[in-house]
Specification:
Structural class: alpha/beta
Number of helices: 10
Number of strands: 16
Shape: globular
Distance between the termini: 27 Å
Helix content: 25-40%
Radius of gyration: 19 Å
Length: 343
Amino acid sequence: MPRTATINVSGDLLWHNSLWRSAELDARRTGAKKLDFVPQLASLTEYVTQADLAICHSEVPFAPANGPYQNYPLFAAPQEIAPAIKATGWDLCTTASNHTMDQGWEGLVRTIEVHHTADILTAGSYATEEAARTPVIYTTDGGVKVAVISQTYGLNGISKAKGKEWSVELLNAELAVEQAKAAKAAGADIVAVHIHAGDEYSRKINAQQAAYAQAVTAAPEVDVLFGQHAHVVQPITKVNNKWVVYGAGNLIAASGPAKPHTYDGYMAQITFTEESPGKFVATAAEYAPTYITRHSGGSPARVYLIPDALKAGTGPAAEMQKSAARTRETVYSLGADGLTERQ
């Protein structure tokens, strides 16, 4: 029987301050010491854990233990988030984003260490040059080796640490292809490339995203491309006959009532099958819309996997159905033959 590997990707984990307050409320209910982020993400656990490799996007750096925490524009999120990421079922988080350098070099290193302490692999930012030059490869329980390459369009004008140009990578299609070749040479069966790019709050892809997707997917060593940044959902399509998940919106965030569509998102799941020794091809693709509820008074924020929540009778059904319809329209807007929606 041929080997398979299912890879699950999703939107930004963007930890605004009202989400910290939600975690405080939940901690009082669950008996956690201070902050409990697990309930915010709990709706996703079943879907996330079904994947052979579940990849999240940690957009913002972690603060020192016990703070101080910072909201936009220079984020510093509570470290208690990392155990919640692990508890939800994620195996690896991409960390290249426009906020990677919000807390400087120390914040970059701390963010990597906090993930690793929680037994979460990272790709996209690096604490040593050796780590930056070594392919990040995750081995599934079935023995399939998946490499993840992660790049960002920019760093919000913040410079990289002096002498550490390798610490976080800016968009460079040629470099991504070189790294994909190195990953395959190191034994990777599948290479997934991640981009943090696009125009904020636009559902349409921009010229940079389109050009990057064309260049990277043209390489035989690259198998799938996925990304975030716009904070609203963007299409899923095929480029050079490979799946491209341009933007999954926000998975958790609290951007305020002025930007209602930032509460929509989706998770995408691509299944690869080994058609000949060492040669994997995408044989199935699925997405599941998500919806975030706001922290309000004594009600903590939640993210819901819409099809599962509707079946279970949890969450605001009417709002979730409207959100799913908005997401569906965008996801299929560039054509996505073979893509199914989780029911």
